[in-house]
UniProtKB/TrEMBL annotation:
It is found in: Cell membrane. Pfam families: MatE. Belongs to the multi antimicrobial extrusion (MATE) (TC 2.A.66.1) family. MepA subfamily. InterPro entries: MATE_fam, MATE_MepA-like, MATE_MepA_subfamily, MdtK-like. GO terms for cellular component: plasma membrane. It comes from Schaedlerella arabinosiphila. This is Multidrug export protein MepA. GO terms for biological process: response to antibiotic.
Length: 442
């Protein structure tokens, strides 16, 4: 039996086998979401809501770091999977190694620049004098581990390309558990405050990073480290193909800044804390869409590379049906459980809780459309159509949100802030439908 026959990506997937293949990525992203919001929950419960606000103030920097990793991971995964599908294994390994090294160097560069301009960055993000020391303590530690953050994003994506999605799941579980345990130790037991929250998260980053490095050094899969060949065309293709994911993260950085500015003007620090609850809850609830898209993208790229049109269309059809069903379930959960989610972050007798609870009643409608938008962006990335993918991400995460954030609060106040994301998702859904119909034959 040849390697092409034994490659997990070459399977003739049906609905349940495809969901089973993508499930580790979905569970992995869910655990990543859990340990991402752990900081905010511990910060709000065991420090104060000002710490919660501070985490969101510096969030745009973290968006930039994750965006670099996601850009290389999504774009690079498509390049590597396509070459594996075309039976160019040696070239795929070289490209893979080059992409990982590039990610590590980017992380070191971000750390250096961040340390030099730390104070200017925090003030530029809109931190008040009250939030300034919180922001400084949290961001300094995050910058120190920037390379580890980028590499764990790369590995989590490329485990799937290597046909080992279960390994990414196991490491995510360990990382999530470690983050929760260290948050409790650093924040509750050692009383380290927001520095403990940042350190706990950073240790979580390093578990997939160190384990992934060891795994790919051992050569136990077809995809492993080798002596890389410098190929700027591959890096350029990876970056351009994964541009939509970078656009998404950069857009999140800008829109988070705009959200913070709007809420700081309307409701001061409590408003920023409330929007933090909504944003982090959104990330947690969309992890199912993101994980499913990550898990199925290599399958799409592989069939695209092997020119198996019948299987390609079958996989895409299954994906859209699954995303539609999950979108309805997530919407209903958010609509009816939103007040309970808000209560996890902040006590039910607080102003922050009341703001967040009211926000969920409007914000929940975004989940009816976000799943299809997220998958469509990943689909076009997997098909090496970075331009369409970037356009969908741009409209979803920046273009329309920015317009709505600048306009709606002037007429609707706080309700306008909450309505910005549902409006943007609905508008992008129309664009997604047009693009899918236009490229249906491909």
């Amino acid at each position: 039996m040849t390697k092409a026959q034994t490659n997990p990506l070459s399977e003739d997937f049906h609905t349940f086998s495809l969901i089973r293949f993508a499930f580790p990525s979905m569970a992995m992203m869910l655990f990543m979401g859990v340990y991402t919001i752990t900081d905010t929950i511990f910060a709000a419960r065991f420090i104060d809501t000002n710490a919660l606000s501070a985490i969101n103030i510096v969030c745009p920097v973290l968006n930039l770091i994750v965006g670099m990793g996601t850009m290389l991971a999504a774009g690079g995964s498509a390049v590597v999977a396509r070459k594996m599908g075309s039976k160019r294994a040696g070239e795929a390994r070289s490209n893979f190694t080059l992409i990982i090294l590039t990610g590590a160097l980017l992380g070191l560069a971000v750390s250096l620049i961040g340390f030099v301009f730390l104070e200017e960055i925090i003030r530029g993000l809109g931190a008040s004098e009250l939030l300034l020391p919180y922001c400084r303590d949290y961001l300094r530690i995050q910058l120190f581990f920037a390379a580890g953050n980028i590499m764990q994003v790369l590995y989590q994506n490329l485990f799937v390309t290597a046909g080992k999605p279960g390994l990414g799941l196991v490491l995510s579980v360990f990382a999530g558990i470690a983050n929760i345990v260290f948050d409790y130790i650093f924040i509750v037991l050692l009383q380290m405050g927001i520095r403990g929250a940042s350190l706990g998260t950073s240790i979580g980053y390093m578990i997939p990073t160190l384990a992934g490095t060891v795994f790919f050094f051992t050569g136990k899969s077809d995809l492993h480290f080798c002596r890389p060949k410098m190929d700027l065309a591959v890096l350029g293709k990876s970056c351009s193909n994964g541009a939509s994911e970078m656009v998404s993260q950069l857009s999140s950085a800008v829109t988070t800044f705009l959200f913070n500015r709007s809420m700081m003007g309307l409701m001061k620090e409590d408003g920023v804390a409330a929007i933090t609850v909504i944003i982090y809850s959104q990330f947690l609830l969309t992890t199912l869409f993101i994980g499913f898209s990550m898990g199925t993208a290599p399958v799409i790229s592989y069939n695209y590379g092997s020119q198996n049109e019948k299987r390609l269309k079958k996989v895409v059809r299954i994906c859209f049906c699954f995303i539609g069903a999950v979108s309805l379930l997530v919407f209903l959960f958010s609509l009816f459980a939103g007040r309970h989610i808000a209560g996890i972050f902040s006590g039910t007798n607080t102003h922050v809780y009341e703001l967040a609870k009211d926000g969920f009643a409007i914000f929940s409608f975004s989940f009816l459309f976000s799943g299809c938008n997220i998958f469509a962006s990943a689909l076009f990335t997997a098909l090496s159509n970075g331009k369409v993918s970037a356009a969908i991400s741009f409209f979803r995460t920046f273009g329309l949100i920015t317009v709505f954030l600048l306009v709606l609060p002037r007429f609707l106040g706080v309700a306008g802030v909450w309505a910005a994301i549902p409006g943007a998702e609905m508008g992008t859904f129309v664009l997604t439908g047009c693009m899918v119909c236009r490229y249906r034959k491909h």
